[in-house]
């Protein structure tokens, strides 16, 4: 599949890291944070850093507020933002991506500021009604995907997250892992939320099979996939509905 953007969100988003070198500089920095208005040219005026006091409970590198924007079709956009969140009375910086149009629609993903921004995910496909947000965790693990409706910020299907296998080029059908241990595929018709489940071909790869399966053709009567066998051959399999 072709990514409509040339790089992941983590490559688009830019941090402005502030590194205090002493207690004095840290205190000065915290005072500055309470009223800071740090924006890029693409940031709407309504996006302001919340007036929340830092506590001494967090140390290390953090950004007071650094924003960047990824444009989506239909006038929507994703905005990367560093915000302050309270956990057990300690205010900590968090990083999140926000879905905006005329106003804030939803916050599809957020992680601690200490984690790498790639954990927020990246846009793998952008369709008129929804976009596919994908998270990679490496080490051969399945990709985790969210099909986010632009109008509401909600999932297009029953599941909020799925382990991703493939998506048809028109965005109508999603192939995902229905059961990893039982080696079963799930097929979701995105706009009707109809689901089917299929057993994996018995000669498919034992490990990482989900990385080597693509949809070749699909209709109301059948699904054809291409997959890799344990002896590294490429084969096709047809499921009848």
Descriptive account of the structure:
There is one protein chain. The strands form three sheets. The protein has a seven-stranded antiparallel beta sheet, with no helix packed on it. A four-stranded antiparallel beta sheet has the order 1-2-3-4, with no helix packed on it. It is built from two helices and 14 strands; from the N terminus they run H-H-E-E-E-E-E-E-E-E-E-E-E-E-E-E. The protein is globular, with a radius of gyration of 21 Å. The protein folds into two domains: 1-121, no CATH class; 157-241, no CATH class. The two termini are 25 Å apart. The chain is mostly beta strands and 241 residues long. Helix content is 6%, strand content 40%. 26% of the residues are buried. It has helices at 9-12, 23-33, and strands at 68-71, 77-87, 90-100, 104-112, 122-126, 130-135, 143-149, 162-167, 173-179, 184-189, 194-199, 214-218, 222-228, 234-240.
Average pLDDT across residues?
Answer: 75
Q: Strand order of the main beta sheet, please?
A: 5-6-7-8-9-10-11
Quote the beta fraction.
35-45%
Main sheet attributes: strand count, strand direction, barrel closure: 7 strands, antiparallel
Class from secondary-structure proportions: mainly beta
Alpha-carbon distance between the two ends: 25 Å
The best one-word shape is globular
Total individual domains: 2
DSSP helix count? 2
Order of helices and strands: HHEEEEEEEEEEEEEE
Which segments are poorly predicted (pLDDT under 50) over 5 or more consecutive residues? Answer: 1-66
Radius of gyration computed on alpha carbons: 21 Å
Percent helix, as a range, is under 10%
How many strand elements?
14
């Amino acid at each position: 599949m072709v990514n409509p953007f040339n790089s992941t969100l983590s490559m688009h988003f830019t941090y402005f890291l502030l590194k205090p070198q002493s207690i004095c500089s840290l205190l000065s920095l915290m005072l500055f944070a309470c009223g800071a208005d740090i924006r890029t040219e693409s940031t709407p005026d309504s996006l302001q850093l919340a007036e929340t006091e830092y506590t001494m409970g967090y140390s290390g590198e953090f950004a007071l507020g650094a924003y960047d924007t990824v444009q989506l079709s239909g006038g929507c956009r994703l905005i990367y933002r560093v915000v302050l969140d309270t956990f057990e009375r300690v205010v900590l910086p968090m990083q999140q991506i926000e879905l905006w149009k005329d106003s804030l629609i939803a916050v599809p993903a957020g992680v601690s500021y200490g984690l790498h921004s790639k954990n927020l995910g990246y846009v793998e496909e952008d369709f008129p009604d929804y976009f596919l947000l994908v998270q990679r965790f490496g080490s051969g693990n399945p990709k985790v995907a969210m099909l986010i409706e632009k109008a509401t910020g909600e999932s297009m299907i029953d599941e909020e997250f799925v382990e991703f296998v493939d998506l048809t080029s028109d965005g109508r059908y999603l192939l995902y892992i229905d059961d990893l241990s039982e080696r079963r595929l799930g097929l979701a018709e995105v706009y009707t939320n109809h689901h089917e489940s299929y057993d994996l071909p018995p000669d498919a790869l034992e490990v990482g099979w989900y990385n080597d399966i693509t949809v070749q053709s699909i209709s109301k009567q059948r699904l054809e996939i291409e997959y890799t066998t344990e002896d590294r051959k490429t084969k096709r399999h047809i499921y009848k509905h």
